[in-house]
Recover the amino acids of this structure.
C-alpha cells in the first residue's frame, strides 16, 4: 500500500487533498459554474503546488 | 493538442525513466552478469507490453470520456506535482541533484553485498525496469486516452527515448552522468501538471478561457509559480 501511494503521490500528504479540494469545489459549484470557476480551479492547484514544496524534503 | 507536444512530453519523461532503469540494469550487468540483467529486462518489458495492451483498450472501451478525463487529469497532476516539487527542491538547493554515477556505485555496492547475486540481480533489474516503465506506460496510456489520435505520437515519443537510451547504454556500458536529468525533470513536471490540470478541468465541465489555447496559459502560470518558489525556498548564501 505504501509503495502504491509513493508511486502515485510521491508520499506527499498535501497533493491528494489539494486535488480533492479543487475537484470538490468544481463539483459543488456545478450548476453555477462561470468564467471565474476555471481560474479558481487553477488557483487551488497552484496553491497546492506551493504547499507541497513546504513539506519535508524526500 | 499538437501531437509534437505529446511526443515531446512522453519523450522527455520516458527518457528520464529509462536512464534511471538503465543505471540499475548496468549495475546488475556488471555484478551479476549480463545474462541475468538482460533476461530480467526482457521479462519486465514483456510485462509492461501486456499491462499497456490490456489497460489502454479497456479504459477506452469501458470508461465514459468525461470520467476518463478526470481520472487521467488526477493521475497526471499527481505525477506532475511529484516531478516538479523535486525539481524545485533541487534548484532551490534543498535536495541533492540527481547523480547517475553515484546511484550506479550504490547499486553495485548493494549487489556485491548479496550472497545470491544472480537471484537478487534478477529481482533488482526486473523491479527497476518494471517500476520505471510503469510510469511511462501510465503517461502514454493517459495521453492516448484523453485525445483521439494521440496514441502514435505519445508511444512514438516513448519508443524513441527507449531506443536512444538502450542504444547509448549498449555502446557506452557506463551510467549516463551527462544527461541533464534535473532540467528534464523540471520540464516534464510542468507539462504533466499542465495537461493534468487542463484535462481534469475539461472533464469537470470548466470553461477554459481560451479553449485549447488555455494550455499555454496554464504552462505559463506553473512556470512562473515554480520560479517564484525556487527563489523563495533558496537558502541564503552565508558570507
Amino acid at each position: 500500500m505504501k509503495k502504491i501511494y509513493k508511486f502515485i503521490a510521491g508520499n506527499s500528504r498535501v497533493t491528494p487533498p489539494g486535488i480533492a479540494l479543487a475537484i470538490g469545489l468544481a463539483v459543488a459549484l456545478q450548476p453555477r459554474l462561470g468564467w471565474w470557476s476555471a481560474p479558481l480551479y487553477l488557483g487551488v492547484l497552484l496553491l497546492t503546488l506551493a504547499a507541497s514544496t513546504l513539506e519535508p524534503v524526500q | 493538442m499538437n501531437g509534437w507536444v505529446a511526443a515531446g512530453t512522453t519523450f522527455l519523461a520516458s527518457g528520464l525513466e529509462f536512464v534511471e532503469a538503465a543505471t540499475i540494469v548496468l549495475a546488475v550487468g556488471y555484478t551479476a552478469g549480463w545474462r541475468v540483467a538482460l533476461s530480467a529486462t526482457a521479462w519486465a518489458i514483456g510485462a509492461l507490453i501486456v499491462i499497456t495492451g490490456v489497460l489502454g483498450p479497456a479504459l477506452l472501451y469501458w470508461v465514459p470520456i468525461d470520467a476518463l478525463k478526470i481520472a487521467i487529469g488526477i493521475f497526471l497532476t499527481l505525477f506532475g506535482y511529484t516531478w516538479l516539487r523535486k525539481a524545485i527542491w533541487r534548484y532551490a538547493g534543498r535536495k541533492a541533484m540527481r547523480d547517475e554515477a553515484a546511484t550506479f556505485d550504490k547499486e553495485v555496492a548493494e549487489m556485491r553485498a548479496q550472497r545470491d547475486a544472480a537471484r537478487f540481480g534478477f529481482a533488482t533489474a526486473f523491479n527497476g525496469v518494471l517500476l520505471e516503465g510503469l510510469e511511462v506506460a501510465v503517461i502514454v496510456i493517459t495521453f492516448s486516452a484523453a485525445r483521439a489520435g494521440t496514441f502514435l505520437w505519445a508511444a512514438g515519443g516513448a519508443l524513441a527515448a527507449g531506443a536512444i537510451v538502450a542504444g547509448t547504454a549498449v555502446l557506452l556500458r557506463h551510467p549516463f552522468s551527462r544527461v541533464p536529468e534535473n532540467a528534464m525533470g523540471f520540464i516534464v513536471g510542468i507539462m504533466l501538471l499542465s495537461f493534468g490540470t487542463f484535462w481534469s478541468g475539461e472533464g469537470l465541465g470548466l470553461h477554459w478561457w481560451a479553449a485549447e489555447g488555455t494550455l499555454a496559459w496554464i504552462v505559463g502560470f506553473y512556470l512562473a509559480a515554480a520560479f517564484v518558489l525556487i527563489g523563495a525556498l533558496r537558502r541564503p548564501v552565508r558570507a
Summary: The interface with chain A takes residues 70, 74-75, 77-79, 81-82, 84-86, 88-89, 94-95, 131, 134-135, 193, 197, 200-201, 204-209, 214, 218, 221-222, 225-226, 229, 233 of chain B (CB under 8 Å).
